[in-house]
Design a protein that fits this description.
The chain is an alpha/beta fold. The chain folds into three domains: about 160 residues, Rossmann fold (3-Layer(aba) Sandwich), CATH 3.40.50.12780; about 220 residues, Rossmann fold, CATH 3.40.50; about 100 residues, GMP Synthetase, Chain A, domain 3 (2-Layer Sandwich). About 30% of the residues lie in helices and about 25% in strands. The chain has 17 helices and 26 strands. α2 packs across α3, α2 crosses α4 and α3 packs across α4.
Length: about 550
């Protein structure tokens, strides 16, 4: 496989070809040319289609048309290539809440031939440092308000690869440099962009060139970087949206998933722009924030997790008079009770779906009229799926096994031995236990690994364990996901203290604060149970299944 990139780091660390999944392109819509830049396909071609004056993206302080977004992205791309020395194939870390500036920066990176590495705004310096070192990130674009953890991560990196930091001011915020070095030492992307032309010659990428490194939590606590190409981006736009979502150019999209999640990137950027629709971005997206945003922007398509749908319905925050017409759920299993609550509150049937970071977006789902309570849906057009047993043999309908998928996208980890576990005989093994019924509906059963999915977030149990063990009071610990009606699962820690007599609520708070300090706050254990010892095998391995019981 060739590459047009000058910096060939990602290309050189692709899995060996025989370890990659089988890609299938059976739909005419998936026949792409050898050279394609997905940013140009989604943004430049929007202008060619006559969409330049259409509303494209809005927030609390900004409202851009398609032409204005293109102008911003082109000017930023000039800064990256002319002032910051970006060459094709360089990895660029993006750090921001959901803002129009974040979207413009993403398009700028991809237009210039760079590889976008979007990160969760809640990540701490240690987590950012792991990503920078894993991907040998050379450039970073950061909302100035989120700079502190990134600057610390840069100083702590082992590889010292990150040389170029650039900042922007989002949501109309002013630049506050109190307590920092002189302002001149900070490269301000939005200021620099104003000096450059609104026209930019896009990098001529191969369709198979990487344009996204999407990081996902590993069950071992070590993050995995999934490699996605320009062709992958255009493939997910050609499969699930037209066959299941069926958006219209008059739609206004809104939602809660961060753009660093591929669920958010697809639902709040790629899919609306592929049809010339509008998106409203929220810097904060609690259920109450969502309701305010839906009313303010008259949003018609909502993307959020089951937890939010349940809370919105239970608290009576939505009604059949809402502007909404489409509601999409993903990130965790949708309980049948939540689906019913939402339908009774709004009259809208939720579109459920399962996708993974490895596959980029949703591959099993169903239209509203084809939905079935308790089922995720059927295989999305363009994909194939089946259920395997432990030996890799296909199971008949009605039997529980490992979900296996293949399609135009698939798992390719950056230099990671875990590729061997995710891809087997050309199939992507997602780590989910499912059964398929006689009608082809897929029903979620559980995870088959140690991943905890809470309110749509993937959380690694071993990562929390390592963090707790770093506290001087902890002798041993084990972390599991405990079923929770509101969040799907919550993180629960069983802790053996060095001094058992100190066990109590005050120490629970101390340990929770310790985790929040070192890791993203959504990862902290909501429950901590102190125990005298942990169940173990004769060889000393912790028996987490006994803790789950």
């Amino acid at each position: 496989m060739n590459t047009a990139h000058t910096d060939t780091f990602v290309h050189d660390h692709l899995p060996l070809e025989h370890l990659q999944p089988e890609f299938i392109f059976e739909l005419p819509e998936l026949e792409f040319p050898a050279h394609i830049n997905c940013a140009a396909e989604l943004l430049d071609k929007a202008i060619a289609k006559g969409w330049g004056s259409r509303p494209c993206i809005q927030s609390a302080t900004v409202s851009w048309t398609y032409q204005e977004l293109l102008d911003k992205a082109n000017q930023m791309a000039h800064v990256l290539t002319q002032e910051l020395g970006l060459v094709s194939g360089n990895r660029v870390l993006l750090r921001s809440t959901n803002t129009p500036e974040m979207v413009a920066a993403w398009f700028a990176v991809v237009k210039a031939g760079g590889i976008a590495v979007a990160t969760m705004p809640l990540l701490r310096s240690y987590e950012l440092q792991q990503i920078i070192d894993k991907a040998l990130v050379s450039h970073a674009i950061c909302d100035f308000a989120l700079r502190e953890e990134l600057i610390k991560a840069q100083s702590d990196c082992k590889t010292q690869s990150l040389k170029h930091l650039s900042f922007f001011r989002s949501q109309g915020h002013t630049l506050e440099t109190k307590g920092l070095k002189a302002q001149s030492e900070f490269h301000l992307l939005d200021t620099a962009a104003e000096r450059h032309s609104r026209a930019f010659q896009n990098f001529e990428s191969l369709a198979t060139d990487c344009c996204i490194l999407a990081f996902t939590s590993g069950t071992t606590g070590v993050p995995k970087a999934t490699i996605h190409s320009h062709r992958d981006v255009m493939s997910i736009c050609a499969c699930w949206p037209p066959s299941v979502l069926r958006p219209q150019d008059s739609d206004v999209f809104i939602g809660s998933p961060p753009l660093a999640f591929t669920f958010g990137l697809g639902g709040l950027v790629l899919f609306p722009m592929s049809v010339g629709a509008n998106v409203a971005l929220l810097e904060k997206a609690s259920p109450k924030d969502l309701i305010v945003g839906i009313e303010k922007y008259q949003a018609t398509v909502l993307f959020t997790a089951p937890t939010s749908y349940r809370q919105l319905a239970l608290e009576g925050l939505v009604s059949p008079q809402s502007s909404l017409r489409k509601c999409v759920s993903a990130g965790e299993a949708l309980p049948a009770a939540t689906r019913t609550l939402w339908r009774e509150a709004t009259g809208i049937e939720i579109i459920d779906g399962i996708g993974t970071t490895e596959m980029l977006h949703i591959f099993i789902s169903a239209k509203e009229e084809d939905s079935l309570a308790g089922a995720t849906g059927k295989v999305v057009k363009g994909y194939k799926a089946c259920i395997f047993d432990d030996e890799g043999c296909e199971l008949p309908p009605g039997q529980v096994g490992h979900l296996a998928v293949k399609g135009p996208t698939g798992c390719r980890y950056l230099s990671d031995e875990r590729q061997l576990k995710y891809v087997k005989n050309g199939w992507n093994i997602t780590g989910d236990a499912y059964l398929m019924d006689e009608r082809g509906y897929f029903h979620y059963q559980s995870r088959t690994d140690d991943m905890i999915i809470s309110s749509g977030y993937n959380i690694s149990g071993p990562e929390i364990e390592a963090c707790l063990l770093a506290h001087e009071m902890v002798a041993e610990c084990a972390v599991i996901g405990e079923p929770d009606e509101a969040r799907g699962s919550i993180v629960k820690a069983f802790v053996v203290l060095k001094d058992p007599h100190k066990a109590g609520e005050s120490i629970v708070q101390v340990l929770q604060d310790h985790v929040k300090t070192l890791l993203a706050p959504y990862k902290y254990p909501r429950k901590i149970q102190f125990v005298p010892s942990l169940p173990k095998t004769q060889t000393g391995k912790i028996q987490r299944f006994k803790l789950r019981q």
